[in-house]
Amino acid sequence: MDLSIIKLRTIRLKSPFFITVLAVILIAVNSMKAQNVASSQKGLDPKAKSIIIISSLTAQGEIPELKKQLGGGLDQGLSVNEIKEVLVHTYAYCGFPRSIRGLQTFMQVIEERKAKGIHDKMGREASPVPVDSNKYERGKKILGELTGAPQPEQPSGYGAFAPVIDTFLKEHLFADIFERDVLSYGHRELVTISVISAIGQAEPMLKSHLSISLRTGWSPAQLKEFVTVIAPTIGKQKTTAANAVLNEVLSSNK
């Protein structure tokens, strides 16, 4: 190559214009990196906070306040089907009576809003699930995805003591419920830890689901905020208990 061309290219690379362009590119790249870090450290969004509060109040049967918060959840952008799914999911952890009472209350909220001319977004329905596959194995697979650990061939502990509960857990909770994609795994875990915190005295299960919550994408900062959000609905004693379990989980995941 002609030496004069090489010399010219070298001068161009050292020119103020080139240096300025390079600086702009580096600033843009660093800015994108900062945005990515910031986005991973964001707090809970309004929808997530509504899910926490609705789940907690449903579990405790606090109907007047629940009615207000159900409307608030719709105002924060949750669809009708998303809230219905939250209320249905709660029954797995606090029983049919609380869940159905929550659904009845939600029906009233929707009718009252319609009377005021408010038309809320229905949202998507759950996708069809395979009916010709082994439900137990599907649930087992989902549980393995949530925990990050392969599930043993034979149940142990309470599952071995009462095998039918292991079957219900895999086939119904993790196949029938968690497999429904109206809510993400992360949002289902928010419902779960909210209900468990609200009913209290279930620390081992709370510990397990807080660990799963980390795996589904919630950050330590967001889970600390979870305790702050749920605190006004569950009182000091249960808040202290939930916070203690969370601190234990976060310490073991460092």
Features:
globular; 254 residues; CMD-like; Carboxymuconolactone decarboxylase family protein; AhpD-like; mainly alpha
Largest sheet: none
Q: Say which CATH homologous superfamily of the largest domain is assigned.
A: AhpD-like
User: Judging from the principal axes of the Cα atoms, what is the shape?
Assistant: globular
Low-pLDDT residue spans: 1-40
Number of domains: 2
Strand content: under 5%
- As a percent range, the share of helical residues equals over 70%
Number of strands: 0
Calculate the terminal CA-CA distance, rounded to whole Å. 57 Å
What's the CATH class of the largest domain, please?
Answer: Mainly Alpha
Oligomer: single chain
CATH architectural name of the largest domain: Up-down Bundle
Q: What is the CATH third-level topology name of the largest domain?
A: AhpD-like
Protein name: Carboxymuconolactone decarboxylase family protein
GO molecular function: peroxiredoxin activity
Organism: Dyadobacter flavalbus
Pfam family, one: CMD
Q: Short description, anyone?
A:
This protein is mostly helical and 254 residues long. The chain is built from twelve helices and no strands.
